[in-house]
Amino acid sequence: MDRRPIGVFDSGVGGLTVLKKLKELLPNEDYIYFGDTKRVPYGDKPKDEIEMYAKQIINFMNEKNTKIIVIACNTTCASIDKSEYNEILFSVLEAGAESAAGITRNNKVGIIATTRTVESGSYAKTIKLKNKDADIFQKACPGFVPLVEKGLSESDESFKLAEEYLKNLNDEGIDTLVLGCTHYPILLNAIKNAVREDVLIVDPAIRLSYDVMNYLKENDMLNLTGGETHYFVSGDAKKFADVAKLILNEDIENISCVDIEKY
């Protein structure tokens, strides 16, 4: 047994979709969640800047004595080299790529993600490693994250933007669509409305949560006596709590603002 908490981080509220899946599967674990709300969105920032952010956040997680760290931000996963870290890191991007490679029926896989993630080619490369016959079609969706952070996921603007972003992927005949940003499951209704009914939508958080559970079991690191979550943000705590309540369907307590740049 290992009673240390699990660390989860993202650029903002999107990573809460991953935290939600983890808590459903591992309700007795303690969690430290960090949302970098002061510096969101990451998707249009340069690689070296995101690498610096990741180091700061991982240093913060180490201070909180986390046993593993879940990178619930695809843009961060696409920008850093996990081998440079000694910590046990789980990548939401790798989980999404493995899921898509395994379930596509016609080998036409669509990826929607931030500009940085798309430009990195990380999803395409990882999917190809698992399924060499896959054809990858990518679309950057820079307008999605700001809408989610403002709590506008069900707005007319979100539905209109989803139709605009997904038109070309529909035309390519994709049968699988990866939500390549953890903010995007919050826009699921708008995204479903914009794709054909037979398109399989991959939420990487599902595979990721099982990967975490299996790792903890295999290494005797499960916590059977916890269940608390502490939230930390770099920006407006009240705004974060308001949006988080919509995602988690619960009131957010134990939330603190941290000067992440000092790490």
Automatic annotation (TrEMBL):
Task: Fetch the PROSITE patterns from UniProt.
Answer: ASP_GLU_RACEMASE_2
Entry binding sites for substrate: 10-11, 42-43, 74-75, 182-183
**Which reaction(s) are listed as its catalytic activity?**
L-glutamate = D-glutamate
Q: Which Pfam families is this protein grouped with?
A: Asp_Glu_race
In Gene Ontology terms, what is one molecular function of this protein? glutamate racemase activity
Q: What class of enzyme is it?
A: isomerase
- UniProt keyword terms in alphabetical order: Cell shape, Cell wall biogenesis/degradation, Isomerase, Peptidoglycan synthesis
Query: Recorded E.C. number(s)?
Result: 5.1.1.3
The record's Gene Ontology biological-process terms are:
cell wall organization; peptidoglycan biosynthetic process; regulation of cell shape
Pathway assignment reads:
Cell wall biogenesis; peptidoglycan biosynthesis
What residues make up the catalytic site?
A: 73 (proton donor/acceptor), 181 (proton donor/acceptor)
Question: Which family does the UniProt entry place this protein in?
Answer: Belongs to the aspartate/glutamate racemases family.
Q: What does this protein do?
A: Provides the (R)-glutamate required for cell wall biosynthesis.
Q: What is this protein called?
A: Glutamate racemase
Q: What is the protein's species of origin?
A: Thermoanaerobacterium aotearoense SCUT27
